[in-house]
Amino acid sequence: MTRSAPTAPSSPTPPPPEAVGPLMRSLSVLRELAVGGGRQSVGDLVRITGLARSTVDRVLSTLARLGYVRIEGRDAVLAPRLLELGNAYLAASELPDRLGPLADRLADELDESVSLAVPDGDGVRFVHQATRRRAMSLAFRIGDLLPAERGAPGALFADRWDAADWQRWRLRRAADPTDAGFPAVPPRPADDRPLAHRAPDTSTRGISTRDTAAQDASAADTSAAAFEARVAAARTAGWSLDDQLIEPGLVAVAMPVRDASGRTVCALSVVSHTSRLSAAELPDAVLPRLRETVSAMEYALGAPQDGPPAPTTAADAAPGPAHPAHAGWMRASKQELGPEFVESLARGLITLTAFGAGRAELPLTAVAEATGLARATARRALITLEHLGYIATDGKLFRLTPKVLELGFAHLSGLTLPAIAQPHLATLVERVHDSASMAILSGDDIQYVARVPTVRIMSVNITLGTRFPAYPTSMGRVLLAGLPPAELSARLALTDLRPLTRHTVTDPDRLIALVEQVRTDGYALVDEELEEGLRSLAVPVHDRAGRVVSAVNVSTHAGRCSPDEARETLLPALRATAAAIEADLHVAGRYARIPAL
Question: Model's pTM, two decimal places?
């Protein structure tokens, strides 16, 4: 059964009179879709939210129009473009941009997983992950939310709680004793027994007297008394220890990162496994480098920048008239879709994207100008989003909160390149009625990572993982064209260029000339070089930095049309598909690493 999202244990604060009811109801649908792992049937969304079927249909229609959701049969599925909401918060916070490279360097030096986390209510939310790939390793994603008491960073953040914060924490624990509202962590025993299968290791070998308090207070349970003791110990030691608070075997040490005013803005954690280091050994092994990195991070937070950070791509810029949810676009969508378009939902979501790099805090007027909304409309959207916890304000300036990441960021940040490409390949196949594939370069070969076949009497039968030599294939030549010229020549010089058909080009000089032409043209057409009767047309897919990371192609029988006809009919559709994949990849890859497999 799907675990629900964290809910307030006490009676929710009534919405202010200016709050927009349709926006609140609509966001409940999006939130439940995110909680459900990014895919939910429409019927389940109706049941969970308690909204009318017609209301849920209208919300999903609007989200699909925005590009945030896809409708697949009876299911609604989160789409990568939704990540732009979380990207807006992360860019505005500047934490991944300023501190992420330092966290990555620490992970490389220690060969351990390293995380950056921020406080979110009585929870802890991750904003950056540098994960080591091991059989037993950290599985959390950017945007995942943990209870404050289960993990090292929570004790650091709770040190700043007031009486009201502690009361909310106790009410939440009483209402949710097993942490069912935190899907990212394993359930907690209802009786607060230790999560670890052994008694906590309280050895203090190699730990200074100053740090002993933090070690002694560590216990692999999450009881209120134990958490309060860990908070006090962390205050004394200046760091916090997680001795298997999340699950058996997982240990971590965290330190606070403070800004110039002394405010804790995030926590830096080093995470390991007891098969590598025990809870007693981990602080001794990592604290010296952890302290150095925290100092470097605090300097980076205070370092001046030469003007506001420049967006990396057009998708990272402020909304503007060209944004697909700008006021003008919304009016056109309302005219086209009529009641199936919930304009207040679109207004609320575009309000979130008004923030970003160099736009961490904005007055009402700036939000209205960025979105093209009337000032009164923008104000009501901001008031509603503040009530829901997605925006905070001091009365004059508004800023995004980490809670924005709950809108699907964790699920979508875990997407792979094939998962991003698959729906676009399916659309391409529906358009051209031939099989479509995606491949990456693997040594001297291409490797198929995504594929959508078509149904024909004569069709190309290839399975995922299939490898072919790169030189006689259209996708291979596109991928080779993405290499520097010197590397291309070196690769071909070491490749066994065997003729696979009577048409296969095997002369190195001619192959280099063909690949250079592909680089100029932006596509490759290969006719019967891999297999007699097989014609293939491919185009590149670029990442945010402009590198060729994969290729997509359409394969067909050579007898169906001439090469010129193939270019005329297939190339525009292929290029449109590659552009759509790139658009998703650029949004998804801004703060998350997108693996090729």
Answer: 0.89
Q: Is 4 helix (H, G, I), strand (E, B) or coil?
A: coil
* Cβ density class 382-407: b for 16+ within 10 Å, e for less: bbbbbbbebbebeeeebbbbbbbbbb
CB distance 385 to 396 below 8 Å = no
161 within 8 A of 169, measured Cβ to Cβ: yes
Question: Phi then psi for 493, rounded to 5 degrees?
Answer: -65, -25
Three-state DSSP class for residue 436? strand
Q: 132-191, pLDDT tens digit by residue?
A: 765 555 578 999 999 999 999 999 999 999 999 999 999 999 999 999 889 888 887 665
Residues 6+ apart with CB under 8 A from 133: none
- Measured between alpha carbons, how far apart are the two ends of the chain, in Å? 28
User: In 94-146, which ranges are continuous DSSP H helix?
Assistant: 95-110
User: What percent of the chain has pLDDT above 70?
Assistant: 86
3-class DSSP state of 288: helix
Q: At what angle do helices 53-66 and 343-352 cross, to 10 degrees?
A: 40
Three-state helix/strand/coil letters over 508-520: HHHHHHHHHHHHH
User: What's the angle, vertex CA 13, arms to CA 12 and CA 16, rounded to 5?
Assistant: 140
Q: How far apart are CA 371 and CA 92, in angstroms?
A: 16
| DSSP-derived secondary structure for 138-197 | ----TT-EEETTSSHHHHHHHTT--HHHHHHHHHHHHH-TT-TT-TTSPPPPTT---SSS
H or E element, residue 114? strand 113-120
Structure-token match 């990371």, residue found: 549
Of 307, 324, 551, 404, nearest to 30 by C-alpha is 404
Query: CB neighbours of 416 closer than 8 A, spacing ≥ 6?
Result: 594, 595, 596, 597
Tens digits of residue pLDDT in 492-530:
988 999 999 999 999 999 999 999 999 999 999 999 999
